[in-house]
Design goal:
Strand content: 5-15%
Helix content: 55-70%
Radius of gyration: 24 Å
């Protein structure tokens, strides 16, 4: 496994692990690749739907030549504060930052003095930038902005909303520990502002909600954007699972001691069972042993081996994403492609949960034992079926079915 870039370099070039390259964590790297891939795919689909006339430019009033507004100064000052607050602290605590960048970036740790200086610098830069562009008499103009030009905003909002949603849903998985008194509210808050603990479905839901309300505010039809992003979400999900696989973050299957089936004989053994050597959580709650002659940071592997569910999910997500990409031009009913995505995603996740290591809990009201992911996956399948029926009937009633 490759917890960070230093382990990748060690594998290919024999360099010593746990060096400065450890700053680049494999999971985070794959997450960035997943986001950029989704943004690229969404951009292509938004442009196509604009050419079809399904998405139209929206006129926005803008003032040319005006001085920096209080909001301009505030946003730039906040950015400067964050960069100074975190960067200087990370520099003087490089070893801790190298081992767990997310723990510092997502926590309240930082340098207040550097943050204030950064805020003043960035706020001042924006002030003088706007001052150079200022006109004696500012002009109000109507500017047309196409939906695909919002891709930068959508990407950032999806990332931020996704992180918050992933943290919230991860905490919800531990709510029973809080009720039982095994965790305190302080523990929960500290867990939220740390680099550990993220639930991928929480990220999907959080990112979706933030982007949905943004689209409504900008007067862009969410239904067409939802269809446009469906294949991208599926592919990005699979790439994200590669981050889990390469880092060995615990999203693996239950112990697998069965011999590899004959029909899989042409595949490498690691497609059937893996021990996840050098996994980032050092085994976690799974049975693990020390790796012989290992002298660096992550020195355990699982014993016995487990199902490599992350690999299987990656393959499944690429196949399903490919199907959605193929269907995108053939399905003309607005909302139908997104409904199919919901069902596909839920179906895949529901069944993989049967062999994944995950914590069960009792679902309120219906009193059924389930993992959080199984429960959400079930809801997604139901929403997918109901959504498909709804948009089909709606299109049939309007006479727009192709």
């Amino acid at each position: 496994m490759f917890p960070d870039l230093s382990y990748i370099l060690h594998y290919f070039f024999g360099t010593q692990p746990d060096n400065a390259a450890s700053i680049v964590k494999t999971f985070g790297l794959m997450l960035v690749i997943a986001i950029l891939t989704a943004a690229w795919m969404l951009m292509k689909e938004l442009r196509r739907k604009e050419e079809q006339g399904l998405l139209k430019p929206v006129k926005v009033k803008t003032i040319i030549g005006a001085p920096a507004s209080p909001m301009d100064l505030l946003m730039n000052s906040l950015l400067g504060f964050f960069l100074g607050f975190k960067a200087v602290y990370a520099f003087f605590n490089f070893e801790a930052f190298k081992n767990d960048p997310a723990d510092i970036i997502l926590s309240t740790k930082g340098s207040w003095i550097a943050g204030i200086i950064g805020a003043l610098i960035f706020g001042g830069m924006k002030y003088f930038e706007k001052r150079q562009e200022q006109l004696p008499k500012p002009e109000e103009r109507d500017v047309s902005i196409s939906p695909h030009e919002r891709i930068g905003d959508l990407t950032i909002l999806a990332a931020v909303g996704g992180i918050v949603g992933a943290k919230v849903f991860a905490l919800l998985e531990d709510i029973d520990l809080l009720i039982a008194g095994e965790r305190t509210m302080t523990d929960m808050v500290n867990s939220f502002f740390s680099g550990a603990g993220m639930a991928i479905y929480g990220g999907l839901i959080g990112g979706f909600l933030v982007c949905y309300f943004y689209l409504k505010k900008k007067k862009i039809a969410p239904i067409h954007v939802m269809d446009a992003v469906a294949p991208a979400l599926m592919v990005a999900y699979g790439i994200g699972r590669l981050g889990c696989q390469f880092s060995g973050d615990g999203d693996w299957g239950i112990p697998n001691t069965s011999p590899k089936p004959g029909w899989m004989s042409f595949l490498p053994d690691w497609m059937w069972v893996q021990t996840y050597p050098n996994n980032v959580i050092d085994g976690g709650d799974s049975a693990h042993v020390l790796i012989e002659n290992c002298t660096y940071r992550y020195c355990t592997e699982l014993s016995p081996g487990v199902y490599p569910t992350s690999v299987w999910e990656f393959i499944a997500a690429l196949v399903l994403g490919g199907i959605l990409w193929k269907l995108r031009k053939r399905i003309t009913i607005p909302g139908m492609l997104f409904a199919i995505y919901l069902f596909m995603n839920g179906f895949e996740r529901f069944w993989i949960e049967k062999i994944r290591v995950n914590e069960d809990y009792i679902v309120p009201l219906i009193k059924v034992k389930s993992t959080q992911a199984e429960f959400i996956a079930s809801i997604m399948m139901i929403l997918g079926l109901l959504g498909a029926l709804y948009v089909w009937r709606k299109s049939k009633g309007s006479g727009s079915v192709a």
